[in-house]
Amino acid sequence: MGAQALSVFAFVFLAEWSISSAAFSQALDSDFTFTLPAGRKECFYQTMKKDASLEIEYQVLDGAGLDVDFVLFSPSGDILATDHRKSDGIHTVETQDGDYMFCFDNSFSSVSEKIIFFELILDNMEDGMEGDPEDWREYVQGTDLLDMKLEDILESINSVKARLGKSVQIQTILRAFEARDRNLQESNYERVNLWSATNLVVMVLVSSVQVYMLRSLFDDRRKTRT
């Protein structure tokens, strides 16, 4: 694995909890789907800066019970949010400088593994963006060929960018909901087929026994002498 891949996902395994950790790149929006084995706990790290915002949304897509434990830690180790055996959740925190850790725990289940989807939304993480409009304004000022101000153009572009980002986020969440509902329906379909087949076999056996019992009642076993 190269240095760039290691900077994106860095897994650390601990013997007691069997914990793995990962560090995401500084992206505004990222999502990840992984399999959490039974009896395991998996943690991820996200580096944040001061006065930014971290939003974490997760869903259990597949697995018995569709539930998992979740906990979010601050860089100092304080618990910021926790969920106990929930199928989905969303948490938003104002951040400080440091690494935030969030963990998914499936140690309460000894048999069923879980497929978990989560999405990270990072706000106010861009650096050096505020000076760009001033640089562009130096080229625009002093010309009479443009009727629209640069501020209006930038505002329109930022508005379109924000709406597109929100659309992508909503579509990602809807895909996760659709995947979870599909897995649930397929599981119910298999259960219905299993119990229907079981009921059919039982009905055939009961009918056969009833027919045999009725025939035995009217069967004349006396021998006729000639």
UniProtKB/TrEMBL annotation:
Residues 41-122 form the GOLD domain. InterPro entries: Emp24-like (IPR015720), GOLD_dom (IPR009038), GOLD_dom_sf (IPR036598). The chain crosses the membrane at residues 194-214. It is a single-pass type I membrane protein. It is found in: Endoplasmic reticulum membrane; Endoplasmic reticulum-Golgi intermediate compartment membrane; Golgi apparatus, cis-Golgi network membrane; Membrane. Keywords: Endoplasmic reticulum, Membrane, Signal, Transmembrane, Transmembrane helix. Pfam families: EMP24_GP25L. One of its GO terms (cellular component) is endoplasmic reticulum membrane. It comes from the Eukaryota. Residues 1-22 form the signal peptide. PANTHER family: TRANSMEMBRANE EMP24 DOMAIN-CONTAINING PROTEIN (PTHR22811). Belongs to the EMP24/GP25L family. This is TMED5 protein. It comes from Polypterus senegalus (Senegal bichir). The lineage of its organism: Eukaryota, Metazoa, Chordata, Craniata, Vertebrata.
